[in-house]
Design brief:
Helix content: 25-40%
Radius of gyration: 17 Å
Shape: globular
Strand content: 15-25%
Number of strands: 7
CATH topology of the largest domain: Rossmann fold
Low-confidence stretches: 1-7
CATH architecture of the largest domain: 3-Layer(aba) Sandwich
Distance between the termini: 40 Å
CATH class of the largest domain: Alpha Beta
Structural class: alpha/beta
Mean pLDDT: 90
């Protein structure tokens, strides 16, 4: 794990600005391949309406860094070095990794994941986060795959976990359907606002009822 001492967070804690409860935000796979595969289908709509994917960075700052969360970035590992994150794949013009952020490895290289369908071990990923997490928020790629699975494992380990869909691949659909996502969300879009077809609503409600880490839709 690449980690820089969180001096600023320590100073805030020492001065009483934040509590000693450990809150973590984890973004999974901020890599070019995943981002570009979505962006190529959304770019025209986004640019026509004046939106920018950099909004993801702004949301992470407002909801997590500014609220005292430790920010972690999960990357695929370097080839043949399981413990070393491959930072060369970061989509750096979209995702900003700050000096006090933490960068951890999935333990599986991108080529192994894509070519051999090998998925990272969720337990290994969670073991690199601090002990006694008071709150864990997860974003990244992809919501219905790696993000959901890691959240389910964290939930089984009785970690207080939530998935922030605004900073997953769902960010693009939410923006196109509902407009600019607020930096701090007071309420989640309704099924009407998301323009969900009536025949799919009951299925979506049932799906989310089984996943307490996802926001409920009404």
């Amino acid at each position: 794990m690449l980690r820089v001492s969180s001096l600023e967070l320590y100073k805030k804690w020492e001065s009483g600005d934040i509590s000693d409860d450990i809150k973590v935000f984890l973004f999974m796979y901020p890599i070019e391949e995943f981002f570009d595969s979505i962006w190529k289908h959304r770019k025209t709509c986004f640019q026509a309406d004046g939106y920018s994917p950099k909004r993801i960075d702004e949301i992470i700052q407002a909801r997590y860094r500014d609220k005292g969360y430790e920010v972690y970035w999960l990357l695929f590992s370097a080839e043949h070095i399981m413990e070393e994150p491959n930072i060369s794949r970061i989509k750096s013009d979209i995702f900003t990794v700050y000096p006090n952020d933490n960068v951890i490895s999935a333990g599986v290289s991108f080529s192994l994941h894509v070519n051999c369908k090998v998925y990272p071990d969720a337990e290994y990923i969670l073991s690199q986060l601090p002990d006694d997490i008071e709150s864990l928020a997860i974003g990244g790629f992809h919501l219905d795959d790696c993000v959901d699975f890691l959240a389910s494992v964290a939930h089984k380990k009785q970690i207080n976990v939530k998935v922030d869909e605004d900073v997953t691949d769902f960010f693009f659909a939410i923006t196109i359907l509902c407009g600019l996502i607020p930096l701090i969300r007071e309420k989640y879009p309704t099924l009407d606002e998301m323009e969900v077809y009536p025949h799919k609503r009951e299925m979506i409600i049932r799906y989310r009822k089984k996943r307490p880490w996802l926001p409920k839709l009404v």
